[in-house]
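> @MW can you paste both from yesterday?
MW: sure, first one:
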Amino acid sequence: MARKANIAREEIHQACWDLLEKNSFPNIPRLADYFLQKDGRRCSNTTFLNAITEWEETYKEHQQNELSELNDVLLPVFKRFSREVTQNIGQLLDEKSSEIEQHQIRKQEATQSGYLSLSSALVELQDAYDALASKHQKLSSEAETLKQKSALNEQRYQEVMAQNAVLNSQIKQAQKDNTELRINLAQKEVDLAKQDNRLSQLSQENQKLIEAQQESKNAKAKDEAQQWQMMAKKLDELTNSMKTMQRKDRGSKQ
């Protein structure tokens, strides 16, 4: 269990410095956790608050002392830097002023010499303008010719497109007709195959009928022949019987 004991004010101040070195600014929860992790001791929040308040005053004095020392170190450096910057700026301003004066002098000289050569420059400019105007006129004429050719080509293109549209329509119609013809041809071929099959069946049936008819005819002829034979036999028997009876009658009369 954590020990309950008073924590001295100096210990709390040292704990504040330790937390600050760890980039954690002191407060009551952090101090309570600090001592709890260190040796398990606890104390009231009032004790922590009073100690933190005293430490903050010490910390402010420490910060002011550090700033004062830093100011003592940096102030001479800043002053020296300021002097050097001021000197450099003055030197640059002098150099720039001299350059501006020289530029102004050269500008005046150029202006004076420019008046002397203005006439020749105007002549050259006029010649250049005339050449450009002639070239512009030539280019305008060529552009107009190209425009007319472009319009003619556009007209021909539209005519070709119209012809292509008609041809495409005709091709589509021909393809449609061809498809219908193919379908009809396929149907005709199917019908023809059915007819061939039917004719084959009829031919087979006809052949069977002919064979059956021939068999029936042969059987009938055979039956008729047998009947004629039987009738001839009976007729012979009847004739023989009559002859026998006649002979008997003749014998009885004698």
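MW: second:
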Amino acid sequence: MSESRAFCPRCGDPVAERSADEATAEGDDVASDPLRPGSEVELCDSCYFDDFDFVDAPDRIDVRVCARCGAVHRGRRWVDVGAEDYTDVAIDEVSDALAVHVDVADVAWQVEPEQVDENTIRMHCYFTGVVRGTPVDEEATVLVRIARQTCTRCGRIAGDYYASIVQIRAEGRTPASEETDRAKEIAHEIVADMVATGDRNAFVTEISEVDDGLNIKVSTNKIGKKIANKTVEEFGGTVTDAETLVTEDEDGNEVYRVTFAVRLPPYTSGDVIDLENDDGGPVLVRSARGNLKGVRVTTGERYEASYEEGTSPDARALGTRDDADETTVVTVEDENAVQILDPETYRATTVSRPDYFDPGSETVPVLKSRAGLHILPDDDV
């Protein structure tokens, strides 16, 4: 009885049959059948291993690393890799450059870095695996050269580059330190959030205090818009923007620098104002978001400016909560009046009794202004 066998197409020696399990383990759907039409006859083990390359590794890899931030240049862009030192960078680059033969199963490898000098690392790589049921191993040495450069982002930061300016101003006054300090925090928070999502173009170029407020220079118009809108969201006011053509990019597109002008409201929480053409009494401002809101210091009633008035109703400033003095309650006359000591003359004076006044109080905060003497609430409510 004759026996059908496959022979090596290179040397003519018989090729040992492989089981279906062996073929499947190495990536074939079924074991090769030499008599099946269109089938490919494999080389014998001897000829196969003559041409077998376990690992394809380059002799040398050149890595461009930003000397300022540690970013690595890959393809056409800089990438933050979060490496602690250049050895970590070298290991990552070698890992990406190595290619293991597809027929090898159970691959394991390790690397031993050798620091040749400050900018050169020799990577000794060791590999093991199994192919055609035979254990194989190989060593490869890759020289990694580190080229210290400056990435686009760090170059722009060093050159004081900016694409947008946010101007923090206030209507009829100078912004308070609480407002400017918070605007600085907002700028850094927005940039940090954008950097965390992978935006390498996000940075604050400069924050400078000027006589009438604050200027914030940032790297993109998108950041400037976010800072301006967030500031107005917290403090109220308005935002306007103006574009200035500064240059053209390499593709001939016009590049604009945008100035976002933030105008904070004339009054802030804690201000006491006297509204024009209004007989309801002074108002302690509680909020300037959307439109001005507050409480009447004569009655305790809530006040809210109309849509047309917004955050800037016609009024004159009388003072702030910080200007209030603590004084003694003499007596409660009735539901509309209370007698207190004038903090300047120490004379008993009858004033309006607002709803928030506690008749059991021995002392109360009061504000004396050109509109008279008024009791303020213990807090901003």
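> thanks! The longest strand covers residues 134-149.
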